[in-house]
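Worked problem 6 (solution included).
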Amino acid sequence: MTGLFDLTGKVAIVTGSTRGIGRAAAEALAAQGAKVAISSRKQDACDAVAGEIDARHGAGTAIAVAASISDKAALRHLVEETRRAFGRIDVLVCNAASNPYYGPLEDIADAQFRKILDNNILSNHWLIQMVAPEMRARREGSIVIVSSIGGLRGSPVIGAYNVSKAADFQLARNYAVEFGPDNVRVNCIAPGLVRTDFARALWEDPDRIKASNAMTPLRWIGEPEEIAGAVVYLASGASAFMTGQAMVIDGGVTI
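Solution. The predicted structure is:
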């Protein structure tokens, strides 16, 4: 059982990894020995995070490749640059997402709805298509989609986002069925409220966060580092018999 979470020699791509859950995940993967490709929309932010990871874990641990999840060509460039730098891809963490609309689902504009679906579902599908062939050929690989407990519940204000996150659960299940015979695993993480910039509107209001914590069995808002361990678990041999599942990490909210 020694080295159960060891990722030495593994290579991971983490989207949306310059802040929040993505950054915490990339740092946790590197701490377990993985090489990591840092990606978000802005190259300077990617460079800064990759530099910090290199400083902590050794030069050459991280590369920085900016890519918008709405741009298929940019995502392909991310995959190609990761292969060029590290020779392979063992782990894909689809973390980046967007939510440009806050309000009732019945009022959302078509363009806003399409952007949510494209960024939160289609981009994950693209990336999986790009990395899966080499994983299947080697008969080893792990794909992790960061979904949300929103995909398990309804909401009067983030309904479209929740629809996209529910679809991510099914994306993982379907790909798990397709890739399972080749020993490539696909799983989701479903965080609850976490203190990230993405969820800032939900936790900056003192009254709102107080009410939220009162309804959370553990009585606190999640921190990005509290999600990162699950990414390491799903990326490593510790989860070798797990695929097509959704890990809920929400302080107990959904119970």
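Discussion: The first helix runs from residue 20 to 31.
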